[in-house]
Specification:
This protein is an alpha/beta fold. The chain has a domain at about 30-285: Aspartate Aminotransferase, domain 2. Helices cover about 35% and strands about 15% of the residues. The protein has 14 helices and twelve strands. It has helices spanning about 25-30, 30-45, 55-65, 80-90, 105-115, 130-135, 155-165, 220-230, 270-280, 285-300, 330-345, 365-370, 400-405, 420-435, and strands spanning about 70-75, 95-100, 115-120, 140-150, 170-175, 180-185, 185, 195-200, 210-215, 310, 325-330, 405-410. The strands form three sheets. A seven-stranded mixed β-sheet has the order 1-9-8-5-4-2-3, sandwiched between helices. A three-stranded antiparallel β-sheet has the order 10-11-12. It has a two-stranded antiparallel ribbon with strand order 6-7. A hairpin with a 2-residue loop joins strand 6 (about 180-185) and strand 7 (about 185). Helix 4 packs across helix 5, helix 4 packs across helix 8 (about 220-230) and helix 11 (about 330-345) crosses helix 14.
Length: about 425
């Protein structure tokens, strides 16, 4: 073995000697534009969104145009956006919604917030919902399928949409980790009944916290509006004495409310969120171009794999480039790879890494697995309207824990260079050549 091939854990020279800087794409692009946008709002003292010229309204228009969808609503978080989208499609007490075993806990928590019961399904080698297991989990109580696109990679959406159509189910897309992604030539989320973005600190673009619900269905949009604000509609549309000039103009004031209103939650976004969101939205393509460039550099530098396969990507053109998934043969080998890669200067994300519990994995959703409720009644699992019977356990989705236990995720962000992405690939080549079969 020549010196360059000797693993760093065995005394060899690491592939990467200068540490790759930490980075999260959205915060990494914050500059004077965001500072000036926020300052302008603060100077104006108009921090409330209900104005026809509001920053929130402008964000919604610009996002709708970017996505090619009819309706958008900016809210306080990705979780709030998911709740709005789910209530928008009519999910509620007595219903079940199928959710991936690999998604942030906010996704099943949003289902519970509607009064419905989450049914946890397996993932496949896309790290998204396994369509075959989705089909198995459908019961007479199933109302919706919630599809999460993890780590910037599209799930097998067409297969899931076909299953939903065959069974008469709604589809909500959790697009919180794939902001700006596409699927078969269309914006992620635009092919389903409703969808949600997150603008959290760790996302592709950020407002610190924030989110957006969107849809092409006018009635779903009206329900999303009701969910976001308990005061809507803000005027009595049946009052014959109200003249057109008395009706505020702009944003969703212009919608002709047709459905019965219901009291929603307080998810209104402030003008500060809207202002930062607009600037970040204008930089989205820059982020996507850079992340995709990094991932291409990584992928083209890889040698033929000996003991791993790459994560399945249903539509590589729609991938946002934020990560590359490598699935090795077993968990013991994955741990060996992660240990050796760290010595070579590459930190990879893995299920077994030490630290806080990974709430993206169903086995760490203790509050849900134990059916803990905010109320002694055990709602929603013991709600009288729910006639189903769902049981949870940490080993209920063995394929999911098996796949994740063998998966290593290489992350890309705005603070990284193409050369650093290539070095990450060379480190993987070196470890695979030494530890692989």
């Amino acid at each position: 073995m020549i010196a360059e091939d000797k693993l760093a854990i065995d005394g060899g020279t690491p592939v990467i000697t200068d540490p790759i800087p930490f980075g999260v794409s959205g915060p990494s692009i914050v500059d004077e534009e965001e500072i000036e946008a926020v300052s302008k709002v603060l100077r104006s003292q108009d921090l409330f969104r209900y104005d026809a010229k509001s920053q929130c309204h402008q964000f919604e228009k610009e996002a709708a145009e970017l996505l090619g969808v009819g309706y958008t609503l900016i809210v306080t978080s990705g979780t709030a956006a998911l709740v709005c989208a789910m209530k928008g499609v009519g999910l509620g007490p007595g219903d079940e919604a199928i959710v991936s075993g690999y998604t942030y806990i906010a996704t099943p928590a949003a289902i519970i917030a509607t009064g419905a019961v989450p049914v946890i399904a397996e993932i496949d080698d896309s790290l998204g919902l396994d369509p075959s297991d989705v089909e198995k989990k459908i019961t007479p109580h199933t109302k919706a399928i919630v599809v999460t696109h993890m780590r910037g990679v599209p799930a097998k959406l067409d297969q899931i949409l076909e299953i939903a159509k065959r069974h008469g189910l709604k589809v909500v897309e959790d697009c919180c980790q794939i902001v700006g992604g596409q699927y078969k030539g269309k914006s992620i989320g635009s092919k389903s009944d409703a969808a949600a973005w997150s603008l959290n600190y760790f996302k592709t673009i950020t407002t610190g916290e924030g989110g957006m619900a969107y849809t092409n269905n006018r009635d779903i949009y009206e329900r999303i509006l009701y969910c976001s604000d308990p005061g809507l509609p803000m005027w009595n549309t049946t009052n014959p004495d109200m003249e057109k000039r008395d009706k505020p103009q702009g944003q969703f004031y212009d919608i002709e409310y047709k459905l019965d209103s219901f009291p929603g939650e307080g998810y209104r976004a402030s003008e500060l969120i809207g202002a930062v969101g607009r600037v970040q939205l204008s930089k989205l393509q820059k982020v996507l171009d850079h992340q995709r460039k990094l991932k291409r550099a990584f992928m083209t530098e890889l040698d033929e794999a000996r003991s791993y396969k790459l994560q399945h990507i249903d539509d590589s053109e729609g991938d946002t480039g934020v990560s590359a998934g490598v699935i090795v043969e077993n968990e013991a080998l994955a741990k060996g790879f992660a240990h050796a890669l760290k010595a070579e200067g590459v930190e990879v994300a893995a299920i077994f890494n030490e630290g806080i519990p990974d709430r993206h994995i169903y086995s760490a959703w203790e509050s849900i697995l134990n059916k803990r409720s905010h109320h002694p009644s055990g709602y929603p699992w013991k709600d009288p309207s729910y006639k189903g019977q769902v049981e949870y356990s940490k080993d209920m989705c063995p394929n999911t824990t098996n796949i994740l236990g063998r998966t290593l995720l290489f992350n890309f962000h705005m603070n990284m260079t193409e050369e650093q992405a290539k070095l990450m690939a060379r480190a993987l080549n070196k470890v695979d050549a030494s530890l692989g079969n």
